[in-house]
């Protein structure tokens, strides 16, 4: 397992296989940590970082697959789940929509109708 690990191969696997391999990796990490506590050799201690990175890659691929399946399922729907929507900024997300900005109160409507803008004929 010292060779370079390819994420490309993980993307071709089924989610069930990925979860099984992930459990094996987590078990291996637990073993390595117990070796670390019992003052094990340096080779095994250096492997902890590699196993952690490999676990992160597995989790990344699993989350990608889940997100893609949810995207495909909600493609026809108008409402996307919150974590799939565009992040943008808080101010942009909370500002009023065009229709909300265009709405006027009753008092504003009365003012507009009863007191329209005056037109002046300017002399030159």
Report what the structure shows.
The protein has 124 residues and is mainly alpha-helical. The protein contains six helices and no strands. The mean pLDDT is 89.
Rg, Å, rounded: 30 Å
What summary fits the major beta sheet?
none
Quaternary structure state of the chains depicted: single chain
Q: Extract low-pLDDT stretches.
A: none
Shape descriptor reads elongated
GO biological process, one term: translation
Keywords: Ribonucleoprotein, Ribosomal protein
Protein name: 60S ribosomal protein L35
GO molecular function, one term: structural constituent of ribosome
Structure keywords:
124 residues; mainly alpha; 0% strand; elongated
Quick recap of the structure?
It contains six helices and no strands.
What is the topology?
Layout: H1 7-12, H2 15-37, H3 42-73, H4 90-94, H5 98-102, H6 106-114
Helix pairs in contact: 2-3
């Amino acid at each position: 397992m010292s060779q370079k690990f390819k994420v490309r191969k993980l993307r071709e696997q089924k989610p069930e296989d990925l979860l099984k391999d992930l459990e094996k990796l987590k078990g291996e990490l637990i073993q390595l940590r117990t070796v670390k506590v019992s003052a094990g050799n340096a080779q095994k201690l250096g492997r902890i970082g590699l196993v952690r990175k490999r676990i992160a890659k597995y989790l990344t691929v699993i989350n990608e697959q889940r997100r893609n399946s949810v995207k495909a399922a909600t493609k026809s729907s108008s409402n996307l789940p919150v974590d799939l929507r565009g992040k943008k900024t808080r101010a942009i997300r909370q500002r009023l929509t065009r229709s909300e900005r265009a709405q006027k109160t009753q008092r504003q409507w009365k003012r507009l109708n009863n007191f329209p803008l005056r037109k002046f004929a300017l002399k030159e």
